[in-house]
Design brief:
single chain; 195 residues; alpha/beta; Uracil-DNA Glycosylase, subunit E; six-stranded mixed sheet; 6 helices
Length: 195
């Protein structure tokens, strides 16, 4: 089902406690969903847009541009296609109160590919959306640009971009390009089929 909205920022009209919050941003019909930790870790407190105003944001947006998701290598208001950006914690405050908002947004986008950025987001995605949480390390650097099969999602862990070393950017670009060249769609439940 396609979502019809002209809003790229907070397309679902969420209102989390602890304003100001950094809500999700991008294509509400995206197949690729990038999930970071929060604005303190990955930027966006000043712009209100995830992955902006930070080294992590500049590096990640450059990758999104390289594979065709972003119109420019960097922008405080990126023009995104087939990609959605959000955070595990929308604003400062109690994670037990805030994580359900991120979970609701993640499920509303219903992307095929989840890209958890950093250890916090990776742990959350492994616990909530895969059956491999006990078998895999919750270390985004170790799992960077690999593929983890989830429950209705393919997970591609991303090492925190602020910590990227030589080869990390290229590995992520190559993984995303290969996925885009394949039939990456994931089955979303018993009523869904992939033709």
């Amino acid at each position: 089902m396609k979502r019809v909205t002209d809003r790229v920022s907070n397309p679902f009209g969420m209102r989390a406690p602890g304003e100001p919050a950094v809500y999700g941003y991008g294509d509400a019909n995206a197949d690729f969903h990038v999930l970071g930790a929060d604005a303190d870790t990955h930027g966006g407190a000043e712009t209100g847009v995830p992955f902006t105003g930070s080294t992590a944001g500049e590096r990640l947006q450059a990758v999104l541009h390289a594979v065709g998701f972003a119109a420019e290598p960097y922008s405080d208001a990126p023009d995104l296609s087939n990609c959605y950006l959000s955070y595990l914690r929308l604003s400062p405050g109690d994670p037990a109160v805030l994580e359900p908002f991120a979970d609701a947004e993640l499920r509303a986008i219903n992307a095929h590919i989840l890209l958890p950025v950093g250890d916090d987001a990776l742990s959350y995605v492994l616990e909530e959306f895969t059956t491999q949480a006990r078998a895999l390390p919750h270390d985004a650097a170790e799992l960077h640009a690999s593929e983890v099969r989830g429950r209705g999602f393919l997970v591609v862990p991303v090492k925190d971009p602020a910590d990227w070393e030589v080869g990390d950017r290229e590995a992520l670009v190559e993984r995303l390009a290969a996925l885009l060249a394949s039939d990456y769609r994931q089955t979303k439940g018993v009523a869904t089929t992939v033709g």
